[in-house]
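Consider what follows.

. . .
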Amino acid sequence: DHYLGNSEFKKIGARIIAQAHAAFLMDKYWDKDLARRKPGFEKAGRDLKEITRVMPDQTFEDELVIRVGAKQVRLFYPGPGQDPGAAYAHFPHARAVATSGTLTPGSMSNLMFTPSVEGWVKVLGQLKGMDVDVYLPGHGDLGRKSDVDDAIKLLTTIQNDVRAARAKGIPLAEAQKTLTFDAYKSWRNYARMADYVRNVYVLEETGKPEYWINGWERK
């Protein structure tokens, strides 16, 4: 799952490229990431011994252009979106951009990694402003401009409502029961809404992403 499958791509000769902050987190949180995925792998009958840490062959900071014949792919990093180091791949010839987990149409993206909801919304705004027609998510269906608007509305609504609840002194457990965001019941991962409310509560209280509470900054 995610970079835990890098070794399989290396077996067929792939060159693995990552944004530098992503590479930093891959190295720092390897043990935690593996432990988080262990139950799912075991349930699926996967052998954990087959998983080995394979770091990127190449990293970049802001942008990297890869040319294949007459075509090119532009990898770029506008700042933390769903998580620090989440980069995007622009395919100008296809008028498309791959958005990783930062944009997943009709789906609740995990909020425990982001260091800033505002930053995430800002990145979405930049993605929307690109001269593309299609958004290629890490999961789910292809996206359009309207899906970017929907994602921005969802993130903004969750953050605003959590801030309002905290301002009233409402404890987290109560907020998880009352902040249900029923308009999104048909979205994938809606069943995890209570977790997402907690993620934003922790972020607002500590200024740090819940998953990387012990540090996510690259020195």
Q: What stands out?
A: The chain has seven helices and seven strands.
